[in-house]
Structures are given as structure tokens and as C-alpha cells.
Design goal:
506 residues, alpha/beta, 40% helix, 21% strand, binds nicotinamide-adenine-dinucleotide
Length: 506
Amino acid sequence: MSIILQFTAVFSIALLSPMFIPLIGVMKYPALDNFVNGTTMPGDHRRIDVTSPLDGSLLSTVPLSTPVELESAVAAASEAQSAWASLTQRDRSQFFFNYRELLRSHLDELAELIHLENGKTIPESRAEIDKAMELTEFACSLPQLTSGEVLEVSQGFYCSEQLEPLGIVASITPFNFPIMVPHWTIPVALALGNAMVFKPSEKVPLSAGRTAELLTEAGLPDGIFNVLHGDRELVEAICDHPEITALTFVGSTPVAQAVYRRATASYKRVLAMGGAKNHLVLLPDADPEYSGANITASMAGCAGQRCMAAASLIAVGDVDHVIDRVCQESRAMIAGENLGAVISSAARDRIESYITEAEDQGARVLVDGRNTVVAGHESGSYVGATVIDQVTPEMRIAREEVFGPVLSILRADSLDDALAIENASEFGNAAVIYTQDGDAARQFTERARSGMVGVNVGVPVPREPFGFGGWNESRFGAGDITGTGSISFWTQAKKITSHWIHTDGE
Ligand code: NAD
């Protein structure tokens, strides 16, 4: 993005939000504060820099909150939650109709913000907000989905069930989707009557601040949605807090495991989504043009920083004509144009080290994205789309999550061999097959050990009302984080048995 365009974008954000007045020459935005009880909460915190992966420029600073700030947020949530819960489902959902319109009218501004703090391209940022709107629409539809049940179980005895909120809940999110992943939980959890403490990634905190402002503008009562910025210390305090009854976490597997263990130790309801290593199986009968483009988009979209991204392509038999297309498409991914930045220079170095190690172990780099520099953005963090052939299942690059625009090709002789590789993965987020053969597709969907499976769909994200959720080390806890399953996660069912006695004449 040109400097002029960049300042124009920042200026337009400043016009729309008093919180984001650009400080030219120092950092683009003022120091960010927590958002508690409907307003910013300044405090005496440790702070860290928020830099743009696009060019390394300083965007803002973010507080690293402590258990003291958590107490304030929980107190505000506690004060507000019972009045919020006493509204009807229809009344609570009304706020989210307003909010959805605000997301729509601020789409350009939010897309610029995501682009600046996360590094993904503007079209990718816009797509993320589109998805957040769809998730908000699900919260709008809750009156139709939560009507409950009633049954006359014996003559004159009625059992009914009604859903009640849990109280104060928490949501902790990663850097890779600053708006969409938070919206997996925020609209549905709040619309169901809970109050929330939200802890976004400290790498992309600006979008979270705007989310809080827009929810307030939509009319959400103060204290129902509170944003606390921070790192491990804050996450651990959230896990331990006795008044927080449930939490969701989305991030890497080691942290998801630690959060799940710690938060369940204090008897919370927990769903912790972890990392991924997604396998795409390519059969010789796959449509070459479509599959080549679709595999590349899955691998390089959002610079490979998607938990649904293609990581390993299992090439069955002679599919070199499709691999040639993947290489062509990958070379057409231009960093700084249709390929965004990765989140930091540390992430770039980690991704490049996986490529170099695989090469040293005998893999063949067909398209090499190392040492990618974008002219005028020399301090940005970029990795070009990379395709590596002759990767073997024992190599670290085939087993661990790389989280960058890198496709490892593993060779297999049959669908059975391909499934054996997929089934051996400790992760289990997504698995995909490219074929025109219905029987092969059926075998694959039955035997893949992943929670989300695609047939000729490289990023098989289920859309509402279906739920998003992986298996194995990609998820700790039961159920899905979106869709109808999220309704039971964020509520508790009360079962009522009634028998009304006829008292004639009274
Ligand atoms: P991360 O695990 O480093 O951070 C996620 C959250 O945990 C952040 O809010 C962070 O502040 C906090 N955190 C980091 N280290 C912590 C620690 N030691 N103790 C307590 N909290 C800690 O993840 P990330 O780098 O921000 O995001 C990328 C990861 O998220 C990838 O592994 C990706 O696959 C995963 N992800 C998974 C899904 C899914 O649905 N399965 C979706 C999106 C992203």
C-alpha cells in the first residue's frame, strides 16, 4: 500500500472513531487501553509495541493487564449480567441486528485496520468481516433456534426445557483472524444472555478495540462486553477466576492444552481449539485447472496463516500435471500484492527455517519463497508461496504446523497409503480430497480422521448452522465452537416438570 493511501486509510478511521486519532511521526494510533464497563480503562500497565507486519511501522502500544484489571472487568460484567439475562431472547438479539449493520457500514475502515495490524490483503480482510456478519446473523436468528421443548410425559405431567445463560464467560483468541475468530463467540455468547471478558491476541489488539466501540454503538449495555489486553499472565488469571464459568480458547496446540488443563481444574466449561496440519489428497482424475488453483489458494491465502490452510499435499500416482499448475499459480502470488505479510519477522524466520531444514534433508524446493522483500517495505515480514516436493512423513515439516504459505508434497501409491498418512497426524482439523470419483470421495470422507472434510474444497469451513471444530490435538473439549453446538456451549438447560391440580370452582 502506498504511503498516501496508508495515511488516507488511517485518516478515514480517525474520522469514524475518536479512539483512533493518528499520531503522525510517532505511532499511527494512540496507546490502546482496555475497554471495561462501556468505556476505555486506562491503567498503569506494562506495555508492548504493536507493529505492522506490512512494513514494520509502529501502530500503537498495548497494555499487558494483570489480575487486578481482571477483577474490574469481572465486577463490571457481574453488575450488568442479570439485567441483560432478564431480557427476552428476541430483545437481546435486536442489538445484533444493529451491530450487523454497523459492521457493514464500517467494512472499509475495519478492513484497513485488519490489513495494517495483521498483514493480510484488503480482499482477505473484507472476506473476514463478511464472515463476521454471517456469524452475527446467527445470533440474530437465536429466537427461532432456542424456543425449547415441552412434552406431556404422563397424563397431566409436563416436562419442559429452557436455556439459561452461564453468567460471566471468557473468550481468548489468536492473531490470524482479528475480527472473524472473535465473532465465533462474541455475538452468540452475548445474545444468549452472558457477559464476556474478551482477551484478543496482543499482536492484533486494534480490531478488538473497534469491536467493543461498535457493540456499544449498537446499544449493548455497559459491562456486557469487556476487552482486556494481555499475555500469559492474564490468560492464566482468566483460567483461574472463580466467577468466570466458561471459556473458549483459539490458538496453538501447546497453549490450548495448557489452557484446557488449567481452566478445567477450576471446573469451568472449556472448549480450546488448537493448531492444525491439514492434508490434501490429490488423485489423478482430479480436474487439473480447478484443483491447481484451489490447492494454491488454500496454501497461500492469508499467507498460509489459517488453521484450515493446505499444509501437506499427498500426491497419489501420476499427478505431476496438476503439481505443475500449483507451481504456476504459486509463482503468480506476488508478496505485497495478492499475497499478504506473515505476522512478524520471527514468524518469517521460523517458516524459512522449516523450508531450509527440509531441503537439507533431501526435499526439492520447486517454488522458493525465502528471502522475499517487497520494494518500499523492506522492514515488512514476507514469505513467498513455496512448494516443496519429495517431503517424507518423518520430516519435521511434514509433522509440525508451519503456519505460512508453504506446501509440502508427499508421494503415495494409493488412496489407502494417502489415508494412512492423513490418519497418522496428531492434528485433525481439515482433510481434503480432489477427485471426480464419487466412490473415492466417499471412502475418503468416511476414513479421514479430521473434523472438517472437503471434497474438491480446499478450505472446507462449515457455514452456519454447521459447527466449526477439529478433532484430535486440534481441539480440546467437546462440541464445536460455532453453529448450533455453540448454543449448548454458552447455555445451561433447565428442565421443569409441572403438574397442575384441578381445583374445580376455585
Ligand atoms: P497462540 O497460541 O500463540 O496465542 C493464542 C492466544 O493465547 C493469544 O491470545 C495469546 O496472547 C495467548 N497466549 C500465547 N501464549 C500463551 C501462553 N503461554 N499461556 C497463555 N496464553 C498464551 O496462537 P497464535 O500464534 O496467536 O495463533 C496461531 C495459532 O492459532 C495456530 O496454531 C493456528 O492453527 C491456531 N488457530 C486455530 C484455530 C482452530 O479453530 N483450531 C483457528 C485459528 C487459529
